[in-house]
Structure to design on (330 residues):
C-alpha cells in the first residue's frame, strides 16, 4: 500500500474519530480515574465485541456502562444474576392474553443496546447459555419466533473475584466469547479523594447524549478501513501461536504451564482490538504498540493454566508478559 493511501486513511480517521474525545469527556464527568476501563468499553463498543469486567465491588462497573449508555442515547438494561434466575427472566417468555384468547410474546431485558449482566457467575449454566446465544448469534428465540438484536448490542458482564461462595465459574468456551476481559483496580488516592468529595456533596454531573447510535455504527465501518500491514498480522499470529506452541519460540519453560492456548477467536479479536485502539488514538494504521497495549485484555481469559502453574502461583498475565517480551517485534 503506497504512502498516499495511508495519508488519505489517516486524514479520514482523524475526522471520523473526533467524537471519541467528546464521548470520553462526557463519561469522565461521572467516572473518575478509571481511564483504562472507559477505553476498554469503547474498544468493545467500536469493535462489536462483549466485555467481561472483573473487580471487587464498588469500583463503578455498573455506573460506567450506565453512563456510556446515556452519553450515546442507547437503551440500557441491567440484569442482576442470581442463583434462582431463569432463562425466561433474561430473554423473555410467552404470556397468555385472556381477552384475545392467544399467547403473546413479552420480551425480556436482553432487548437493549447496552446490557449489564451483573455478577454473571452467580447464575446457573442454563441462564448463562441463554445470554450467550444472544451474544454469539445476535438473536434470541422465544417459543418459535426468532428476534434479531438491535445494533449496537454490547454485553458487559461483571464478576466478583473475591466471593466464590454460591458462584458458578464460567466454562472456558463461554469466557472465550468475550472480546476482552478487563481487570479493574482501585482508583488512585487523589482520584478517590474527588470521588469521596463528590459523594459527600451529593453533586453529580448530568450526562448528556453527545453521540448518536448512527455515529457509532458508522465509526464501526470506518474502523475496518484502518490499515494493518502484513508484518503486524504476522506479529499477532506469532503471539497467538506462542500461547499454543511456546517451544517454537524458545519458551520451552512455558510448555508445562499452559494446558491450552488462545483459539482463533483470540487472533480475530486481537486484530480487531488493535485496529480500534489505533482509531481511538486517531491513527489510520496499526503499530506494534497497539497490539501490545491491548494484548493482555484479549488473551488473559483465553490461556488455560496447568496445576503446575497454579502451584507456582503463575497467572495467565505472567505467561502473556513473557510471550510478548520474547516474540520479535516487527
Amino acid at each position: 500500500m503506497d504512502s498516499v493511501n495511508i495519508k488519505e486513511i489517516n486524514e479520514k480517521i482523524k475526522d471520523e474519530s473526533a467524537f471519541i474525545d467528546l464521548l470520553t469527556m462526557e463519561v469522565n464527568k461521572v467516572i473518575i480515574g478509571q481511564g483504562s476501563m472507559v477505553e476498554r468499553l469503547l474498544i468493545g463498543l467500536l469493535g462489536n465485541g462483549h466485555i467481561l469486567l472483573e473487580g471487587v465491588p464498588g469500583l463503578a462497573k455498573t455506573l460506567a456502562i450506565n453512563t456510556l449508555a446515556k452519553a450515546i442515547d442507547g437503551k440500557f438494561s441491567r440484569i442482576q444474576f442470581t442463583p434462582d434466575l431463569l432463562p425466561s427472566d433474561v430473554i423473555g417468555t410467552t404470556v397468555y392474553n385472556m381477552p384475545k384468547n392467544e399467547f403473546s410474546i413479552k420480551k425480556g431485558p436482553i432487548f437493549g443496546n447496552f446490557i449489564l449482566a451483573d455478577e454473571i457467575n452467580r447464575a446457573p449454566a442454563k441462564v448463562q447459555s441463554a445470554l450467550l446465544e444472544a451474544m454469539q448469534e445476535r438473536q434470541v428465540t422465544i417459543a418459535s419466533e426468532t428476534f434479531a438484536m438491535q445494533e449496537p448490542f454490547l454485553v458487559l458482564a461483571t464478576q466478583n473475584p473475591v466471593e466464590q461462595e454460591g458462584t458458578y465459574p464460567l466454562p472456558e468456551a463461554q469466557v472465550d466469547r468475550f472480546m476482552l476481559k478487563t481487570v479493574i483496580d482501585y482508583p488512585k488516592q487523589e482520584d478517590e479523594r474527588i470521588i469521596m468529595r463528590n459523594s459527600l456533596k451529593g453533586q453529580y454531573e448530568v450526562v448528556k447524549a453527545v453521540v448518536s447510535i448512527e455515529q457509532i455504527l458508522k465509526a464501526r465501518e470506518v474502523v475496518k478501513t484502518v490499515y494493518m500491514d502484513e508484518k503486524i498480522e504476522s506479529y499477532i499470529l506469532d503471539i497467538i501461536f506462542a500461547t499454543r506452541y511456546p517451544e517454537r519460540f524458545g519458551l520451552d519453560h512455558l510448555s508445562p504451564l499452559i494446558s491450552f492456548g488462545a483459539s482463533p477467536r483470540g487472533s480475530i479479536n486481537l486484530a480487531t482490538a488493535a485496529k480500534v485502539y489505533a482509531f481511538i488514538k486517531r491513527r489510520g494504521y496499526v503499530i506494534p504498540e497497539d497490539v501490545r497495549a491491548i494484548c493482555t485484555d484479549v488473551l488473559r481469559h483465553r490461556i488455560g493454566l496447568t496445576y503446575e502453574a497454579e502451584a507456582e502461583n503463575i497467572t495467565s498475565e505472567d505467561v502473556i508478559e513473557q510471550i510478548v517480551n520474547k516474540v520479535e517485534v516487527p
In short: The CA atoms of residues 122 and 167 lie 5 Å apart. The chain has two domains: 18-217, 227-326.
